[in-house]
Structure formats: C-alpha cells, structure tokens
Amino acid sequence: MPAVQLVIEYWMLLIPLCLHIFGILFIFDAVMNGRTSQGTIAWVMALFFFPYLAVFLYLIFGARRIQDYSTAHQSGTTDIHHLGKMLLRDRRLRELMERGTPQIDVLSDIYQFPVMKGNRATLLIDGEETFNSILNGIALAQHYVLVQFFIVHADDLGNRFKAALIERARAGVKVYFLYDRMGSFGLRRSYIRDLRAAGVHVAIFRVGSGWLNRFHINFRNHRKIVVVDGEKSWVGGHNVGDAYLGKGRRFAHWRDTHVKVEGPVTLAVQLSFVEDWHWARGQLPDISWAPPPEFGHEPVLCIPTGPGDLVESCSLMMVQAINAANRRCWILSPYFVPDVAVIKALQLAAMRGVDVRILIPAIPDKRVVWWAAHSYLAEVAVAGVRMYTYQDGFMHQKVFLIDDSMAGVGTANLDNRSLRINFEITMVFTDTDFIHRVERMCRTDFSASTPLTTDDVYRRSLAFRLAIRAARLFSPIL
C-alpha cells in the first residue's frame, strides 16, 4: 500500500506540473502567433490561471492554421505548385484568362488564379435538382470523377451516390473520393469498404500528422466538389444525405443552392481538389490537365480559401465583395457570426446607401450559432443593415449578390469558422444573365422571409437575451 500511495502521490504532483509547463509553452505560442490582442489576452489569462482545462482547449481551438499544410501550401516547391505554374503558363489557357474590373481582379489575386472565360453556369436550386444533375454528370463520366464532401451519410441518397461511384469505377473510370474526418465522423466503415472494393480511391482529410496536430479537430474541410473529366464541376452548399433533399427528421424543406459550371474554370476547381488530395494521400491523382472545351461565354472565378493560406483569404473575399457594392449587397447564409472586418464593411456599405440585406434561417439547426447571430443584430441594424429570417424550412445556402456585377455561390458561411478556420470554395460570376437568375432566386427567398428587428429581440425573454450574449462569447469558434 505505501508503494501504491507513493506512486499516486507522484503522479498527482507530476500531472499538474506538466500542465503548468504546457500552459507556459502555449502562452509563448499565443503571444507570438495570436491573431488579435483580445484573443491573445484571453488565452494567456486562461492558460496561466486555469491550465488544467485551458491546455486541452488550446490544443483543440488555439491553432490558427494547420502548420504542415500551411508550410506546404506556401513553399512553392511541391508538386502542386509546379502543377499550378504549368497551368498558368499554358498558352491555350492563357487565351481564356482575363482581367476584369479592379474589384474582381483583387478577388482573383486571393487564389492567384485568374478569371476564366468560356464557361456555362447552371444555377441548381434545392436537393432534387442538384443531385439529379450531379448523378447524371457522374453517369456520363468517361475518364475520371473527383468527389469531395464535408458530410456523407449512408442513407438512401448516400447509397445512391455510392452506387453511382461504384458503377463508374467498375466501368473503368478512375474515381477519387475525399471526405472530411470530422464532418463524416459517423460514416459506416462498410460504406468505405464497398467503395474501395469496387476500385474507388478513397482518402480522409485529416488535419495533419504529428502528435499535436491530432488534437486540432477544430479545422474542417467544408468544401463540396464534384469534377467530371476535367470539364464539368459542381460546387455549393449541399452535402450528401437525405436531409439535403428535405427528407430529414427536423426540416420538411431544406433550402440550398449549388451551381454546375462547364468549361475552363473547372481546372481551377480541380486544382483545389488535387491540393487537398495531395495533402491527404501524399500523391497526385492520375487525371488530365488539358484545357477543356468552351461551353459558353461566361467568365467565372474560383476562390478556394482556408487556414493554410498566408492571409485570412475568406474574410478578405467577403470584405472585398461588400466594399465593391454601390447599390445592393445581399448575403444569404445559414450562420451569421461575422468578424470585426466584415461587420465594419457591412456598416459602411449601409451608411453609403447600399441596400444591405442578410438572410438567415428562422429555425436553427445549431442553436448556439443561431443565438450568436441575433447578438449582432443591433450592431449592424443601427447602420441600416436589414436582417431577415427565412420561414419556409431551413435555409442552408451560401450566396452573395453585389449590384448587377457579381454573384457568389459556394460553401462559405458568414461566420468565423468559414472566414478563418474551415477550408472553403466559392465560385464568383460576373455574367449578367447568370446574375439575374441569382437575383430572381434571392427575391423568391426574401419573399418567404420576415424582417428581424431589434424590437423582436428586446421583446424576448431575459433568458433568450442572456443566451444570445453568452453565445457571442464563443463566436471565434462557431
């Protein structure tokens, strides 16, 4: 017994000592790499006074970017960089690249890939239209299919999706399937075994190797991408599951938006997929980089963003889009937890007379995030920003519309997670006809919504008002 007691006392001393040491090391990291003074001070105080909890929280939430991915992304020496440089030098592709207005050129500089001409874009509204288009596209694949989703469920739609990939793989088409470990945490192993048994190449996006990186579960690859033969691509808000068809238990109607793009810009979407695949598997997929044919006349810009970027590229994209608005700035997002830069841009846009509207769901799927969204209402409403709540089910689309000059459809929400933590992808369009289609879609959505005013919040119970203020405290990780 004395020996056992001695061991217990030894560990009771050693564990707190180790936590204090790690707390001091993480304080140094927070001071050297903190993004904001407020966040740095909060981490320093927590790590110094409450290391027993704060050390574990810092492991999960403290990192600002995936260091290994960031290093590879910025090195300029990897296979991916050589591939990107090769594409930019291709004579046929260079003929399809264009510089536009200063506003759009700044956006293209974020990804360092230009606007591509010669595309045809199709707006896909809600799940049936989206997945009919995707599954039909996969069925017509002749050479390869690239698939990347944040969430995949092994339900009816998930099994239809799996069957489509298996059928193409057995037909000799190369199929690459990439999914996020955290988003698809509950995906059955049998689902993956069936894909691999049919010859589908499968990869899981993890945050990285190394002991510390294994704790960084806060990072998510939120991209949803399908590419067929390097000619056609699909990007948008839908994941793979019955809920996205409005067949889930909670919502009778799931409002979402995807876009199908055919033409040269698909190579930029493909490059984004390949960069993630290379990170997950350490190899490049065997696919074509020949410039695809021109399917139309529309110029399109692809902007992948993420925590591996040198700058906070998604936040810059949103701020630049808002600053470009002279008449209209409509943003439709299920989650509204903006950073300071986005809030200031929205306020300034409204103050200079821009019609600024934010549409969020009336019924939440994530209550804490929904509460946090309400905490920003007074801050933006005082400047003239108008907020609306979508009443016809749950709205999950990620769309912005700027004047009659720019529309964005993609995977990025207007929240801190998308702006800083998640890997996202957005397609930006400047074609007048496509912008008018987006405008009609947005007007339909606003007609199914009601205004949200500060009085609506103040009339709520004290418990609700406390909840929204408490939720605001967690905004950096929501």
TrEMBL record:
Top class in the EC scheme: transferase
Example of a GO biological process term: cardiolipin biosynthetic process
Record keyword Transferase present: yes
Domain PLD phosphodiesterase: 217-244, 391-418
Location relative to the cell: Cell membrane
GO cellular-component term (any): plasma membrane
Keyword 4Fe-4S found: no
UniProt GO MF annotations: cardiolipin synthase activity
Protein name, UniProt field: Cardiolipin synthase
Protein source organism: Desulfosarcina ovata subsp. ovata
Gene (UniProt): clsA
